[in-house]
Amino acid sequence: MNQHKFIITQYNPKYAEQTVDMWRDSKEQAIGQKEIHSFENHVYFLNHILSELFQINLALIDEKVVGMIAYNEREISQLYIHINYQGIGIGQTLLDKVKEQSSGRLTLYTFEVNEIAQRFYEKNGFKIIGRGHENEENLPDIQFEWISK
């Protein structure tokens, strides 16, 4: 699988539809339930809310969106990888870049049902600091924190 050469780039609204498609598929697979927001609302959220509050980086293979991360120096808001491109280092590369730019401490939430994500974060030095955060999906979640050595 490692012949896939991906590039990391700043988010550009020309990738909005692709990004939202990938995000919805990845999230649905991870939590086993359909996205509650319409596609149009999701695109609006990405372009006008998320991108105002966070830096967004995309991973691209041949102009195809295969991953996204939304973050600031203290928090990771979103990290989703295309369902056909998981396990080849895209999430790792995105996370490592964010760690480098962080304040030395990052927090994030992940759904309790998403065991793959939990293993990924634990492998990357994140520790559980809380449980049961409120979210729109009404699913139990876990708050993780990473502190640089």
Task: Name a few traits of the molecule.
Aminopeptidase; alpha+beta; 149 residues; 4-stranded antiparallel sheet; 3-stranded antiparallel sheet
Distance between the termini: 31 Å
Any guess at the CATH architecture? 3-Layer(aba) Sandwich
Q: Can you give the helix content as a percent range?
A: 25-40%
What is the succession of H and E elements?
A: EHHEEEHEHEE
Contiguous helical run count? 4
Rg for CA atoms? 15 Å
Overall pLDDT metric? 95
Strand content: 25-35%
Largest sheet: 4 strands, antiparallel
Structural class by helix and strand composition: alpha+beta
CATH superfamily: Gcn5-related N-acetyltransferase (GNAT)
Q: Which word captures the global form?
A: globular
Biggest sheet: strands side by side, in what order? 1-2-3-4
The residue ranges in which pLDDT falls below 50 over 5 or more consecutive positions are: none
> What is the CATH class designation?
Alpha Beta
The strand count comes to 7
How many domains would you count in the coordinates? 1
CATH topology: Aminopeptidase
